[in-house]
Amino acid sequence: xxxxxxxxxxxxxxxxxxxxxxxxxxxxxxxxxxxxxxxxxxxxxxxxxxxxxxxxxxxxxxxxxxxxxxxxxxxxxxxxxxxxxx
Length: 86
What we know:
alpha+beta; 2 helices
């Protein structure tokens, strides 16, 4: 069973970053960029809300910092959702 992705969470959901994984990502630097932004294992993360119609951008909080991510970026972030087993 694979870990849920940040892009799959409902608005308001909280969790912890497990790791980063790009499957078919068009940008080879994407994982590097996400790690530089603070999406590192053990960091608390929350999907705050989605753009119009439940789409992009996704407003997220990682630690104390807020970001707007594209769906393709959020799909690379594996999370352990609070209340669910890893």
